[in-house]
Amino acid sequence: MAGALSVQFTQETIPAGFVTAPEVLLPPPQQVGYAGALAVRNLAEHGYIAALGLSEGLRDKIAAVAHQEFIRENCWKDEGPKRFGTLESAGQWLGKNGGRAMVTINRVPERQGPISLSQLPGLSVADTVLAAYGWLGREPNKHIPGADVTTAYRVSEEFRKEGLGWVTGVLVVGTAVNRYGLPPERMSLDVWDSNSPAKLLYMKLGFAERARGEPEWRPTLWAIGTEFRNGQVAVARIDEDGKAQHMVQDSRIYMQLDPQRWDTIEKAAAEKLAAAA
User: Fold this and answer.
1) What's the rounded Cα separation, in Å, for the pair 88 and 97?
2) What confidence score (pLDDT) does residue 1 get?
3) Which of 84, 85, 171, 95 is nearest to 137 (CA)?
4) What mean pLDDT is reported for the chain?
5) Taking the model in full, what pTM does it have?
6) Strand 234-238 to strand 23-24: parallel, antiparallel, or no bridges (unpaired)?
7) Are 63 and 83 in contact (CB under 8 A)?
8) Cβ proximity of 265 and 205 under 8 Å
9) Could you tell me the CA-to-CA distances from 195 to 16, 198, 200, 272 in Å, in that order?
């Protein structure tokens, strides 16, 4: 992709801890890629800013969003003790396998109308509303040989109709490829088969299914007896507090970023940027 579009990789080091203040992302493609640059511009037109890095204050906002029902249903680890449940757990997670880079989409509430690109460097996420978050980091996918960079995206329920899943995805991938020098084919993610909106988003971003796990029981927020795909929700176990744990049968799908599909996305964005110049 770099040869086709002449983007220079900067190959910075992925951060491995909290930052004092997340860096507001700017539109040069050398930092975020062409699709990312277009996303930064479109976000600013609608009163949003994108930022790189996780601060302690931003961790609080992510923990609150991670407690929302849709995220708890499909990505329950986010609110728990292995990710954003506490400052300590988030700090440990940031250092996992050499680091995690967090990208956030933030609504600037006090601004009416567009934000000019010249204003972006002077803005901060401190007084914004968290709309979406995503990350990348090194983690081998045992189901996909050669894929050793994990990535994920979440959107707050208040903003789920704003197209921010796509925006978060292209910024995370664009940052991985252009800022950290990570080839697209090394990136992967996994998703529950029941999560159709996420599967469609990932395919749109250029991910393709490479493997599928066997059906397994997973926690769910659905009520006992609710029809779910081919089975019923059931009480599978009693947790340590003596409460019934609702479970449902589902399968994990493992997806890898297709470099040709990503190149197509980048080329289309480059053409749009050139036409707008």
Assistant:
1) 16
2) 40
3) 95
4) 91
5) 0.92
6) unpaired
7) no
8) yes
9) 30, 6, 9, 31
